[in-house]
Write a structure and sequence with these properties.
The protein is α/β, with parallel strands linked by helices. The protein contains 11 helices and 15 strands. It has 2 domains: 6-92, no CATH class; 111-138 and 147-376, Major capsid protein gp5 fold, CATH 3.30.2400. The chain is 30% helix and 21% strand. An 8-stranded mixed beta sheet has the order 5-6-15-11-7-10-9-8. Strands 1, 4, 12, 13 and 14 form a 5-stranded mixed beta sheet that branches.
């Protein structure tokens, strides 16, 4: 199709061309637009036909898009291309990546699963513990009734801290990542935050983090005279090992815990996997193992009848460490959640990148030190 001139077309039929064309200017312009669109479509059809002929052969009545010798050269070039090298074609090969990403298991200490967990709405949170002390006595019908002692209360404030991660992701990676990178980051970082808090519940010093139950005062004094807040330990009898009478020491830990604690829900042992393995070799006088591993998923093994919680941040067996703990964790340790896991998406601070700020505010503290006992690797 060729370009047309509307003025030349009507000139042989009218006396005044300009007068005759008045009112047709807009229509003529529209007609030209239609013609141009038809031309563009024709060009696209020609390109498509040529591409089809190149890779599928020319159709009946069509001229081949390339000559045989040109097509042979192209085939030789394609034969030399490889998906294993970027420059020879690898960049054009779509990568298929499994959307489920296998991850290494982190050291997750399940203190949160056995402890008393509370959500709080204020940072000024206090817990009260009744230290008892109420007096009483017997009296006859007409005997005097002097005043008795009142109970004593102790106030405990769990130290709070914010555990966070700040991940930077480029905009290109955000657009090209094989799976939803925001969900991937959220899941991965949340697990790392859980690992951090798990360690803090056991070993945290209470400075901008929870105070772990092994970071406070621990001594050998019994419940009757030990100061409130201190945890009692039972020594292994050897300065660097679990000693020669470990079953006896474990029983001493159980019976040093008041019956009201050990006979309630939430009572369990706690040790690392390495220590649990050492415990699995223990046998009674009749050759029966003291540690019974669980055969059901989600159900812990038992040691001397109580569940064993494997907590990877518990210490190993070394001088002056506390590799095994026992107690009623619901009564003994409290975790407070000030906020859940928050995620802030920041595309403004750094151009070309998106910052993901993920954080959680959490606290923890020993609430009742009588409810927890630990084994110390020491001679006495």
């Amino acid at each position: 199709m060729t370009d047309f001139n509307l003025e030349q077309m009507v000139k042989p039929f009218v006396d005044d061309v300009h007068t005759a064309l008045k009112g047709f200017e807009g229509k003529a312009a529209s007609l030209e637009g239609v013609v141009h669109e038809l031309k563009d479509q024709m060009r696209k059809n020609e390109v498509l036909a040529a591409r089809t002929a190149l890779f599928a052969g020319a159709g009946a009545g069509q001229k081949a898009a390339v000559q045989p010798e040109e097509k042979a050269a192209l085939v030789d070039f394609v034969k030399g291309m490889s998906g294993t090298t970027g420059a020879t074609g690898g960049f054009a090969v779509p990568e298929v990546i499994a959307t489920d990403i296998e991850a290494k298991v982190l050291k997750m200490s399940p203190v949160r699963l056995v402890a008393n967990v509370r959500s709080i709405g204020t940072p000024n949170y206090r817990m009260l513990v009744n230290l008892r002390g109420t007096g009483s006595g017997w009296v006859g019908e007409t005997g005097a009734r002097p005043a008795t002692a009142e109970p004593t209360l102790e106030s405990i404030t769990p130290p709070l801290g914010t555990v966070y991660a700040l991940a930077e992701v480029t905009e290109e990676l955000l657009n090209d990542f094989a799976t939803n990178i925001e969900d991937f980051l959220y899941t991965d970082v949340a697990e790392h935050l859980a690992e951090q808090e798990s360690n803090a519940f056991i070993n945290g010093d209470g400075t901008n983090k929870p105070r772990g139950f092994l970071s406070g005062t621990i001594n050998a004094t019994s419940d009757a005279t030990r100061a409130f807040g201190a945890i009692q330990y039972i020594a292994t009898g050897n300065a660097s090992t679990l000693g020669t009478d470990l079953p006896g020491k474990l029983l001493a830990m159980i019976f040093a815990t008041k019956a009201g604690y050990r006979q309630s829900e939430g009572t369990a042992w706690m040790a690392s996997t390495a220590v649990v393995q050492a415990l699995s070799e223990l046998k009674d006088t009749q050759g029966r193992p003291l540690y019974i591993p669980s055969l059901r998923e989600g159900t812990p093994g038992t040691l001397l009848g109580f569940p064993m919680v494997e907590a990877e941040h518990m210490p190993g067996i070394a001088a002056n460490t506390y590799p095994i703990a026992f107690g009623n964790w619901q009564r003994g340790y409290t975790i407070v959640d000030r906020t859940g896991v928050n995620i802030l998406r920041d595309p403004y601070t750094k151009k070309g990148s998106v910052l993901f700020y993920i954080n959680k505010r959490v606290g923890g503290v020993v609430r009742n030190s009588e409810a927890i006992k630990v084994l110390k690797v020491a001679a006495s």
